[in-house]
Amino acid sequence: MFFIQYRRDKHIQSTAAPSLLAMGIAMAFMPAAFAAEDTVIVEGAMSADASNSEEQDYSVKTTAAGTKMPMTQRDIPQSVSIVSQQRMEDQQLQTLGEVMANTLGISGSQADSDRISYYSRGFEIDNYMVDGIPTYFESRWNLGDALTDTALYERVEVVRGANGLMTGTGNPSASINMIRKHATSREFRGNVSTEYGSWNKQRYVMDLQSPLTPDGNVRGRIVAGYQNNDSWLDRYNNEKTFFSGIVDADLG
Q1: Dihedral-angle region of residue 170 (phi above 0 means left; psi in -120 to 50 means alpha; beta otherwise)
Q2: Rounded Cα distance, 55 and 62, in Å
Q3: What is the mean pLDDT of residues 104-132?
């Protein structure tokens, strides 16, 4: 009986020894493995004229939507959707109504061909802003705001849910903020586009910006356009002309 117990202890010791040896070898080589890793440093530079409006992307770097502070979209503690200028151009979203139809969590109730009321989270949206300045909207005074042309705007920001910090009192549905195009270039830039489509559609848009002083500290931008089109409805015609002029200056 004593002999069997001794053999068991010896067997346990002999099988455990290689495990301890392997652990010792692994720990001995761990510092060398860490020392072999190289530190990778990534460097980059951004142009002095770079801005959010010039980003050829569907996203923007920072936004003040929801907090009035420049933050990245993932750091904002609310549900935010941003429809950029590039996306509006690529998807041909030429009116505010078309932007809302392509925005997550927004539904519409159409009264006629021009008047649409929008809803989010079960409530009607009555908080509309231009460059962060609140304007009150009531459905009975809806004069076709959904036809507002997006050629005047750099992007459209939608904050879903209660947004009293930005808009004050109102329905806890959502707020729609339309950011106008600003003069951001210190050199002359221009863009003229024409479009022809179904139902005798014709559309012309001109977008020009230029420095007004030699150093470029004062800049101006003009956006103008005209559109005329018929519809699948008989005796319906839509004609609109829009214009926006803005001057930006660097102070200090």
Answers
A1: left
A2: 11
A3: 88
